[in-house]
């Protein structure tokens, strides 16, 4: 995340955040504005995709000065990356609870994603943006940070990174399957049985000894 620096706004029409110098950048105002920008970006990226959204569109939707997007996030790419970070629950899911129950937690996470009839903000953002090379780099770094590295930290034994990468493939594969084949077949399956099958798959992927 970009570290905020004290610098003047670029020239432009005044907006709600173009306050007198004595009031500008108060912590409460700054956090409220950042939150509005993140929420506006999440909705716009989810609706139009990365290429269909401009910094000015985000600033207008957040009722903020366009200069603040660059001040708080550095660029549109930086804002996209921070929205991803805020929407992902994977790192917390991996870190929480007993490591022995991790395969089951991952399985239940995938089942919830399969049965979500309306895609959440994160899948919509990715689906509409994944073709952009800049977004592909952001997604690669994001997956490394919130999925692969947390998995490696929970694993003992050899080849931890390869095992984590295999489990990550199982999780991230839901997106392409949804885009190409839809979810009807998986949703027709019994959720408990589907979770049981996925638990076996995640157990085999994460085990240092392979399937037994």
Helices and strands in order:
Elements: H1 27-48, H2 55-61, H3 67-73, H4 76-87, H5 90-95, H6 102-114, H7 121-129, H8 133-154, H9 160-172, H10 174-181, H11 184-188, H12 191-206
Protein name: TetR/AcrR family transcriptional regulator
Keywords: DNA-binding
Pfam families: TetR_C_16 (PF17920), TetR_N (PF00440)
Briefly note the structural class of the backbone.
mainly alpha
Rg is 20 Å
Low-pLDDT residue spans: 1-23
Quick one: overall form?
A: globular
Strand content: under 5%
Distance between the termini: 43 Å
Total count of domains = 2
Main β sheet profile: none
Mean pLDDT: 83
Order of helices and strands: HHHHHHHHHHHH
How many strand segments? 0
**Helical content, roughly?**
55-70%
Please work out how many helical segments DSSP would assign: 12
Write up this protein.
This protein has 212 residues and is mostly helical. It folds into two domains: 1-87, Arc Repressor Mutant, subunit A (Orthogonal Bundle), CATH 1.10.10.60; 88-206. It contains twelve helices and no strands. Helix 1 packs across helix 2, helix 1 crosses helix 7 (121-129) and helix 4 runs parallel beside helix 8. The longest helix has 22 residues, at 27-48. The N and C termini lie far apart (43 Å). The model is unreliable at 1-23 (pLDDT under 50).
